[in-house]
Amino acid sequence: MTPYLVLLSIVALLTLLIRGRTTPAILFTVWAAAYYLLGFVSEREWLAGYTNSALTTLILLLLVSLALERSPLLDRFSDLVLKGGPARAILRLSVVTTLFSAVLNNTAVVGALLGVVSKQRHVAPSKLLIPLSYAAILGGVTTLIGTSTNLVVNSFVIDAGLPALEMFQFSLVGIPLALACIAVIVLCSRLLPAHEPAERESRQSYFLEAQVTPDSPLTGRSIEQNRLRNLDGLFLLELEREGRLISPVGPDEILAEGDILVFTGQVEKVQALQQIPGLQVFGTRADALLGSNLVEVVISNESILPNRTLRDVDFRLQFDAGVVGIRRGDKRLTGQLGRIPLRVGDALLLAVGPDFAQHRNIDRNFHLLDTGVLRPRLTPRQSTLALSGFALAIALSAVGVWPLLNCLLVLLATLLATRILSVSEMRRRFPFDLLVTIGSALAIAKALESSGAAELVADGMRSLFDGHGVLGAFIGVYLITVVLTEVITNNAAAALAFPIALSTARAFDVDPMPFVMAIAYGASAGFLIPFGYQTHLMVMSPGRYRTLDFFRIGLPVSLTYSAAVLLLVPVFFPF
């Protein structure tokens, strides 16, 4: 009875993860605690997950990356990479991103290049941003530290009593896989939407809202008389009056007190609205903040904002900022902006106050298109010290001189001692959600194994692939992981699939390493649906993409990726 009860609870967990209304950190923590209270795992097994050495290594790596991502190295490559025709630019950008992503956090690499790629005028950004996100995934699967997913899988491997994964063990399959997929991306680049720069200026605009104030000189006069029809860089889309929407707005429409005007416009032209007497820009104290920096941000998948409206959130109190405009891909928003439920991936234009950079919740809620607002670039001397120290740590670990955990501890201490990294920045950006998610996932994996639920699934896999042998089961485990990573997060997919893979390998009495690699590569194979991978959400709104755009270019990439994994893993990691 117990195995079936655990399996039923895992189905419930998966359902809640797919719905996405509750963060994985909360769900995994609740499930792990419940398994402990029900006696499926012991107190020692429950708490041991949070002290796993591979998990500690992952946390240290992410903290060290806080300094590395501020290096100006990526910026220096941008002009060189993005010149030339689209195909060449895509190839160069993909190669550079893959190389950096092999040793740096995927999100940090995409975040560092996102603003540069979005604002350059050599090639339409919509031709480059999906390849940027895909290349970050491809680089991540070439080394142990390339993506958090590999380190997460390594934590499960160590917890299961298997030999720890090595730094370049992933390269055997990862490098030819990455080269094949980059070639497919370049060959299929015509499938990417082409929003040309000239078109971008008129269409890739924020939706801005302003209200006619009491005793405004605009009242009683028409749109034409108030010269609101042909503002430089701004276009009046619609007018809302007492809950009634007027769209399109005619030039003879007479304005009244309380009217809400919705404009579409370029970022650089927003301050023009502030110059119009009697018109108040939407946003909590946004008018007072417009003299400060205007900052573009993208709502992250860890944010508290999705499914809430701007009127539900006190932006001034929480972020010291006012929302001036919203952009959602290529979709036209309508109605009062303050009443539109926000989504992950929405781009916001913020007028920020002087304390914006000091708020600890900025990095959790937003991806900044200009990270220099929060974190100034390292000086050349600091950049050299940080990058050379990191390279030395990787080299010492790779040749077996010193464990990676020890190397990262010394490097982190050095970065703190030289003030390249500060304690306040570490505190603000500490990956607490990842820590509790993976720590809890290890306890859940123990419950699956000790209750017999994982063995039950493995027996089902063996029956399902009876006649196809261990290779059929290997393919089945990989496909299950790919489906999971497309509908939930990659780390959650690895956590749920790993105990099934391990039990399946034991059921066939074969080396578990091919199945472990199937989980590692499968959990990073999120190319089709933008909502399952964080970097896809980061590029979706700046690139004005639709879900279909990811599917069109992602399908050939996903097929190539999967074919490479299924062909190469059994060769380099035989059963």
Largest sheet properties? 9 strands, antiparallel
Low-confidence stretches: 197-204, 284-292
In helices, the fraction of residues equals 40-55%
By helix and strand content, what is the structural category?
A: alpha+beta
Q: What value does the Rg take, in angstroms?
A: 25 Å
Mean pLDDT: 82
The count of β-strands is: 9
Spatial shape: globular
% residues in beta strands: 5-15%
> How many distinct helices?
25
Report, as a whole number of angstroms, the end-to-end distance: 33 Å
List keywords for this structure.
alpha+beta; nine-stranded antiparallel beta sheet; single chain; Cit_transptr-like_dom; membrane; 575 residues
Please give a structural write-up.
The protein has 25 helices and nine strands. Helix 5 packs across helix 7 (106-119) and helix 21 packs parallel to helix 23. It is of the alpha+beta class and 575 residues long. Strands 1, 2, 3, 4, 5, 6, 7, 8 and 9 form a nine-stranded antiparallel sheet that branches.
Show the helix and strand layout:
Layout: H1 2-19, H2 24-37, H3 43-48, H4 53-68, H5 73-82, H6 86-101, H7 106-119, H8 129-140, H9 148-159, H10 171-187, H11 197-203, E1 206-212, E2 234-241, E3 244-246, E4 260-265, H12 271-274, E5 279-281, H13 286-289, E6 294-299, H14 315-319, E7 321-327, E8 347-352, H15 362-365, E9 366-368, H16 380-398, H17 404-417, H18 423-429, H19 432-450, H20 453-464, H21 469-487, H22 490-507, H23 513-522, H24 534-540, H25 547-572
Antiparallel strand pairs: 1-4, 1-5, 1-7, 2-3, 2-4, 6-8, 6-9, 7-8
In short:
By secondary structure, this protein is α+β, with helices and mostly antiparallel strands.
